[in-house]
Amino acid sequence: xxxxxxxxxxxxxxxxxxxxxxxxxxxxxxxxxxxxxxxxxxxxxxxxxxxxxxxxxxxxxxxxxxxxxxxxxxxxxxxxxxxxxxxxxxxxxxxxxxxxxxxxxxxxxxxxxxxxxxxxxxxxxxxxxxxxxxxxxxxxxxxxxxxxxxxxxxxxxxxxxxxxxxxxxxxxxxxxxxxxxxxxxxxxxxxxxxxxxxxxxxxxxxxxxxxxxxxxxxxxxxxxxxxxxxxxxxxxxxxxxxxxxxxxxxxxxxxxxxxxxxx
Amino acid sequence: xxxxxxxxxxxxxxxxxxxxxxxxxxxxxxxxxxxxxxxxxxxxxxxxxxxxxxxxxxxxxxxxxxxxxxxxxxxxxxxxxxxxxxxxxxxxxxxxxxxxxxxxxxxxxxxxxxxxxxxxxxxxxxxxxxxxxxxxxxxxxxxxxxxxxxxxxxxxxxxxxxxxxxxxxxxxxxxxxxxxxxxxxxxxxxxxxxxxxxxxxxxxxxxxxxxxxxxxxxxxxxxxxx
Amino acid sequence: xxxxxxxxxxxxxxxxxxxxxxxxxxxxxxxxxxxxxxxxxxxxxxxxxxxxxxxxxxxxxxxxxxxxxxxxxxxxxxxxxxxxxxxxxxxxxxxxxxxxxxxxxxxxxxxxxxxxxxxxxxxx
Lengths: 263, 226, 124
What we know:
The complex is a heterotrimer. Chain A is mostly helical. Chain A has helices at residues 2-35, 41-67, 70-76, 78-83, 89-121, 128-167, 171-195, 208-216, 221-233, 238-260. In chain A, helix 6 runs antiparallel to helix 7. Chain B is α/β, with parallel strands linked by helices. Chain B is globular and about 45 Å long. The longest helix of chain C is centred in the C-terminal third of the chain and has 22 residues, at 84-105. Chain C has helices spanning 15-29, 41-48, 52-64, 84-105, 110-123; strands at residues 37-38, 68-71, 75-78. The radius of gyration of chain C is 17 Å and the shape is elongated. In chain C, strand 2 (68-71) and strand 3 form a beta hairpin. In chain C, helix 1 packs across helix 3. The A-B interface holds A 2-3, 5-7, 9-10, 13-14, 76-78, 80-81, 83-87, 166-167, 262-263 and B 12, 49-53, 70-71, 75, 77, 79-83, 85-86, 90, 93-94, 96-100.
């Protein structure tokens, strides 16, 4: 689709500074990881893993900022230009979303590689299957349950606020949505937990415990039970499916608002 | 009939609005849309463009909804609407990718005629940006052109170039609705002049008829809207 | 052809009439000659920043009056047998009538008016 390609190009031209900064910042995190000089291997690994988790969280935050810039565009009239172009609101929303997801994918897969790196630094040798799981499956899962719905939500919020700016006090529903976000997430989270494991789980990291034991020795019996339980259950698929469905619904709504809105 | 307004009213909390406006726009006209600030000129053009929706009344554009027919209409708004990092080449890329009726060759010609520098818009003057946006608009082959104050805040030479380009690019089956405060400069172009006052239609008259009666579009402006 | 050779006052009556007057004036002066080419309606419209339809209207009137003709594929031309002399005389008559009218409003007598004319003619 020519229009989708053009809109993706536009997204890229608009956002490449954000993208470059985000991906470039990983070099900074990697440098930070190297600076960790704790003696004990396990502790060092733990701190490094924590840093990477922070990098992931920051990445999510920055991505939300990047996708949510419609407000500025509304003020300067560029939103008005786009609104009058032939492609549907769905196409516009899809272009913004796909670009952000593309950037997110590169970011989180790179973090996956960094996890492999810190494990290698700690002397843990992972077999190819676990490696692929770490670098691809985990980012995919993590993204599906956090980034994908969160970005869809941000996009919806921004489109909503921009839309109703003209014909009413748009900041009221927008503020309600924004303030309601933590409550929605909590309610959602609780609901998902209750429903989880109705379907069979996704067994990841089957070989990981063996590699850890090889490096750190046998853990205590309670830990063994937990590990066995985790290996048996796998990670729940429900959150994945629910979040993907929610993201899709939010994108459709955002596209619909864009179609019907004044500017 | 390219556009038809029947008792169209648009109410919203900012100043401009239109009240009970009924107008027909057949093809082949260059129409001057005249009025003071807040008289409803912008609102009317935005309604026809599909940017705004009527609160009451019926509006048909190309026989259907305004927003639905937006690909057959060219709207040139007042607010500076380009991204600061865009060059004319970027603009060409954008338009070609989104508008099937956009002609890159014509765009290049217009850039030359209108003397638009090949720089980022943030490095252009307001007049140059205005001319670029006009080139983008005129390089499309649509039937209905809605130009909202295309001469506003633009230097004299640019205004002359813009008016000349409008005359050259207009085809006899196209309709241009042009709202402007530079009534004296642009009045030669208008076949028809529409005067709006407080959102209502004050006068709708052929321009030559005004001159036949010893007046002019400008003179009538002062009479009708003072 | 430049914009300077065409005189247009947007407050002085319908544009199409003024265009007609301009053509006649140019013919009378010899700026334009029978068989000479006129600018295309669109070119003239662009130069003067007026609606092309107005020029088309003007040209149509001139054609009806037998002053110009459209030659297919070539453009618009002054007819070879355009009544230039008649136009000159008509124009002279018009100027003379204007002079007389204005001068009469000043309460000037015939003799005074003629004297003023002779003086102005001799000076120029």
